[in-house]
Amino acid sequence: MPLGLRKKKNKSRESSNLVENEEVSGHAGVGKSAVNGGGLPPPPASLRPKLVFHTQLAHGSPTGRIEGFTNVKELYGKIAEAFNLSQDEILFCTLNTHKIDMEKLLGGQIGLEDFIFAHIKGIKKEVEVYKSEEALGLTITDNGAGYAFIKRIKEGSVVDGVKVICVGDHIECINGKNIVGMRHYEVARMLKELPKDQSFTLKLVEPMKAFEMLEPRSRGGGGKTSGDGKIGTGRETLRLRSKGPATVEEMPTEFEEKAVKRVDDLLESYMGIRDTELAATMVEVGRDKKNPDEFAMALDEALGDFAFPDEFVFDVWGAIGDAKQGRF
């Protein structure tokens, strides 16, 4: 439909799964079959990535080995099994750093030599916020398994003035309404629609921190981390999808990296969310489309849950075109 007409706890694992003081080297190996997720049969063996990854709990733990997952929910399940946790305890994962670094957040891709750090639930807190401006200054993302959390706090914003609210905090309730299971764009919309010049209440859960991780609040810029960079130099990644099996692919091209980054920035600007998997899907959908109307129809087909405004679709189309032409 053309633009302008669109409507819009487990038993302990065997000791082979946890290795104390293991030196991390190659992570690829022969894996087991994928778990049966969501009542659906596992994909054929030929489609299952047979890879082994190393993982730790971000606040400190032995090293675990995980394998045989095809999406984010299954990944969390494997981590939970390895550390004898409930899967519901896992808030999000970062790659190659135990810090709450939103630039290292696990999204739709994992490098074959990436080390996975799982951040689990820590202190619960409740805070009252007075909405003195229309915009709160929050960017919301989610972990792909029902938990929305704060990815960025804009300096000088309403929320920046409430120092108990931090980047990485999971938003559990808004004004007493439990929002677990909602997608990040739904949470962002709820926050945006709260009336101005009134107070509202947030129930938050912060990630558990080791003593050495306790530091001044981060606004989520991330920056560059020299000591927590890539462990290896593998040029392939595991691409995780919310629908369909995971696949092993080449590292993103310069076009893909730039286009995904630009589309993710547009998602934040228009919708108050960041989602690299969603941005990558949009770039994938748009790369071979001939005009904005064709792109808009393909987006509606692929991402019907999102009611994207027409001006956003035009800007995304332009961003993909700019990346194709090398204009970034």
Structure write-up:
Residues 1-41, 215-234 are annotated as: Disordered. It comes from Culter alburnus (Topmouth culter). InterPro entries: GH2_GIPC (IPR055349), GIPC1-3_GH1 (IPR056814), GIPC1/2/3 (IPR017379), PDZ (IPR001478), PDZ_sf (IPR036034). The chain is an alpha+beta fold and 328 residues long. It is 23% helix and 23% strand. It has helices spanning 72-82, 184-193, 254-271, 276-286, 292-302, 310-324, and strands at residues 18-19, 52-57, 63-67, 90-95, 109-111, 116-131, 138-142, 148-153, 170-174, 177-178, 198-207, 236-239, 247-250. Strands 1, 2, 3, 4, 6, 9, 10 and 11 form an 8-stranded mixed beta sheet that branches. A 3-stranded antiparallel beta sheet has the order 5-12-13, with no helix packed on it. Strands 7-8 form a two-stranded antiparallel ribbon. Helix 3 crosses helix 4 (276-286) and helix 3 (254-271) runs antiparallel to helix 6 (310-324). Residues 4-16, 20-39 and 221-234 have low confidence and may be disordered.
Taken in chain order, the helices and strands follow as EEEHEEEEEEEHEEEHHHH
* Major beta sheet summary: 8 strands, mixed
Q: Taking all residues together, what is the mean pLDDT?
A: 80
Structural class: alpha+beta
SSE layout:
Layout: E1 18-19, E2 52-57, E3 63-67, H1 72-82, E4 90-95, E5 109-111, E6 116-131, E7 138-142, E8 148-153, E9 170-174, E10 177-178, H2 184-193, E11 198-207, E12 236-239, E13 247-250, H3 254-271, H4 276-286, H5 292-302, H6 310-324
Parallel strand pairs: 2-6
Antiparallel strand pairs: 1-3, 2-3, 4-6, 5-12, 6-11, 7-8, 9-10, 9-11, 12-13
